[in-house]
Amino acid sequence: MAVALIDSGLGLLPTAGWLRYLRPDLDLVLCLDPEGMPWGPRSEASITERVLAAAKAVAEMELDAIVVPCNTASVTALDALRAMFEPGVPVVGTVPAVKPAAATGEPFAVWATAATTASDYQARLIDAFANGRPVERVACLGLAEAVERGDLEAAREAIADAAKRTPGHCTGVVLGCTHYPLVSAEIAASMPGVANLYDSAEAVARQTLRRLNLPERSDTGLGAVEVLLSGRAGTLPASAHVFPLGRAIASGERITRDLLPEATSRTPGH
Fold first, then answer.
1. Edge-to-edge, what's the strand order for the sheet holding 108-112?
2. Residue 32 contacts residue 50 (beta carbons within 8 Å)
3. How far is residue 159's CA from residue 188's CA, in Å, rounded to a whole number?
4. Exposed/middle/buried for 13, CB within 10 Å: 0-12, 13-18, 19+?
5. What are phi and psi of 67, to 5 degrees?
6. What's the rounded Cα separation, in Å, for the pair 58 and 65?
7. Which residue ranges make up each domain of the chain?
8. pLDDT tens digits, one per residue of 54-103
9. Who contacts 14 (Cβ-Cβ below 8 Å, separation ≥6)?
10. pTM of the model
11. Per 3-state DSSP, what percentage of the chain is helix, strand, and coil (rounded to 5)?
12. How confident is the model at residue 39 (pLDDT cuts 50, 70, 90)?
């Protein structure tokens, strides 16, 4: 069976890693958009256009599911993707883990890009699930871009800056950008007082398997990994190889649990 993942860049790696860990036999098609990234500052119409262009590039493939491991693309283009592919091919989106963070009743912060932090989308999520409790919104300036470049020093600087601006009473942090789990260890180290990081990659992968009616089977053979760059065959960018998970996916290796980003709570895809 084959699953395509559509994102502007390396934010698809954590979900791809979880899929490959839970079902190594799945063929994965990783659709990145280096010509159009970043998607965040684009208009909704432009984001939808880029996502649908990636989808059209894989439309002739024998796909069993499509996953959008990008919060912005999910809220913007998921309906259009579902209109194109469902019911024949299930489409799974991603939602930041605000709901499980709020369910603990503990104070938490949402780390996200500046655009997402200021968005109506994030405000609606918080209003829907925080039950009136205050939620700290922290714009992580330059963090997604540093991760995309594979610049760990710049990523650490951006993390340190965001950590300073995260109030000390927060016991949890929602990773509100799918790039951030690639540096979750650095985020956790920057805030020893934070007990929980909330991420969505594992739950999105599990939701995908549920939509496919597939049980988890880590003892299977290894499927192929194909990469499309703005619709053309290619390879993962050099920046992906900075991260152990990216190197493993690029080389077609079996994914072990230690390669996957750590998070103590997760939210399902939809």
1. 136-139, 108-112, 172-175, 196-199, 265-266
2. no
3. 10
4. buried
5. -120, 140
6. 11
7. 2-94+201-259, 98-199
8. 999 998 899 999 999 988 888 888 899 999 999 999 999 988 889 989 99
9. 69, 178, 181, 182, 199, 201, 245, 260, 261
10. 0.92
11. 45, 15, 40
12. confident
Cα of first residue to Cα of last residue in the chain, in angstroms, is 20
Residue closest to 182 by CA, chosen among 167, 161, 166, 197: 197
DSSP assignment, residue 255? P
User: Which residues are the active-site residues?
Assistant: 70, 177
Note whether 17 and 249 are within 8 A (CB): yes
Q: Are 125 and 267 spatial neighbours (Cβ–Cβ below 8 Å)? A: no
As a CATH number, domain 2-94+201-259 is 3.40.50.1860
Q: Which residue has the tokens 């650490």?
A: 156
Retrieve residue 61's tokens.
């493939």
> Are 2-94+201-259 and 98-199 the same fold in CATH?
yes
For residue 153, give both structure tokens.
Answer: 């020093």
Both structure tokens of 117: 């932090």
The CATH topology of domain 98-199 is Rossmann fold (3.40.50)
Residues 254 and 113: their CA atoms lie apart, in Å, by 31
Q: Which of 215, 222, 177 is nearest to 72 (CA)?
A: 177
* Numbers of helices and strands, H then E, in the chain: 11, 11
